[in-house]
Amino acid sequence: MKHPRWLALLICSLLLFTAGCGNVQKEASNEGEQSPAGSPAQQSDVTLMLDWTANTNHTGLYAARDLGYYEEEGLNVSIVQPGAGGTDAMVAAGQAEFGVSYQESVTLARTQDVPLVSIAAVIQHNTSGFAAPVDRNMKTAADFEGKKYGGWGSPVEEAVMKSMMDQEGADVSKVQMINLGDADYFTAVKRDIDFAWIFYAWTGIEAELRGEPLDMIYVKDYSEALDYYTPVLVTSEDLIAQQPELVKAFMRATAKGYQYAIDQPEAAAALLSKAVPELDQELVLASQKWLSPKYQDDAARWGEQKAEVWKGYADWMFERELLDKQIEADQAFTNDFLP
User: Fold this and answer.
1) Do the bridges between strand 195-199 and strand 128-133 make them parallel or antiparallel, or are there none, so unpaired?
2) Residue 273's pLDDT band (boundaries 50, 70, 90)?
């Protein structure tokens, strides 16, 4: 669940998409028993592509699959790792019906006319931020000055950092930027860097378990525009237009899966650990307990998205020249398929 190196990967995948990978809708099979009223009439094979390796962001998806919620809706769902072209491009091209993505990347995709639509916010508020071992004495964004930051070379990183530091009269040019690629956070802060951008639900909780406490500076605390949805569930405009009942069925089951993870974090953690045995069970359990209340948080229902959140972040990106053009925010997401 480390913060994804989404920008470089997304640009490459979008170039492949716009160069002609086409909009090839994968046909679903029509085998199996009749499903409940309102869901697809026959069993449909569905591919759900993750954004990264499995973690507690995804617990509700595994719960929906392994507790039979998808099956009850007439869906045979395969959960797969990201493809070489990137999840967003694969979903937009119809190579996967659904995927896990981020508001950042959906926003960028929409500027490239990639027909990607967010259908649910997995977590209601942004749980990411800049983290440093407590011995670096980094309590606010002003303390970034003179420190070494380990990132992945995206212009978004510096833009976010600058917007936070500007509020405290600090100078982002005094931060030494180091491209770490996929280096392990805990190794890097001992050897190469002072801080990095993480999701607290995974790397922060792991730090607690290691007895290596962090100072965490959440990006959402500095700007409402930075309290965007990350991650989100996405599908394509074509699937929405052509098979809306399938999308509704998928979301009914998925919402039940996340409600299970909200209501029963320990049981949900055990389920994820069983489904993905290579994960550290202690980390999964601790992470799940921390994250479960945050899936829905203060929203009226799990998955709810607000137009002002989509518009606010798109405006923020455009003002900082991270987008070539504005997007129509209300076309980038929909709540219509939430139960």
Assistant:
1) antiparallel
2) very high
Pairing relation of β-strands 148-151 and 176-179? parallel
The answer, yes or no, to whether residue 40 has pLDDT greater than 50, is no
Residue 83 DSSP one-character state: P
| C-alpha neighbours within 13 Å on the C-beta side of residue 292 | 19
Per DSSP, 82 falls in state P
Three-class DSSP category at 12: helix
- In the three-class reduction of DSSP (H, G, I as helix; E, B as strand; rest coil), residue 323 is classed as coil
Q: Count CB-CB contacts under 10 A for residue 167.
A: 13
| pLDDT of 5 over the 60 cut | no
How far apart (Å, rounded) are the C-alpha atoms in residues 303 and 339? 9
Query: How large a percentage of the chain has pLDDT more than 90?
Result: 83
Give DSSP secondary structure letters for 226-273.
G----SEEEEEHHHHHH-HHHHHHHHHHHHHHHHHHHH-HHHHHHHHH
Please report the pLDDT score of residue 1 as a whole number. Answer: 52
> What dihedral do alpha carbons 167, 168, 172, 177 form, nearest 10°?
-110
Q: What is the DSSP code string of 23-66?
A: --PPPPP--SPPPPTTS-SS-EEEEEE-SSS--GGGHHHHHHHH
Q: Using one digit for the tens of pLDDT, what is the confidence trace for 276-313?
A: 999 999 999 999 999 999 999 999 999 999 999 999 99
* Residue the block writes with tokens 């607290």: 200
Report helix angle 265-275 to 244-263, nearest 10.
Answer: 120
pTM assigned to the model: 0.88
* pLDDT at residue 19 in the model: 41
Residue 266: half-sphere exposure toward Cβ, Cα within 13 Å? 0
The phi and psi torsions of 128 (rounded to 5 degrees) equal -100, 160
Q: DSSP characters for 136-165? A: G---SGGGGTT-EEEE---HHHHHHHHHHH
How long, in residues, is the chain?
339
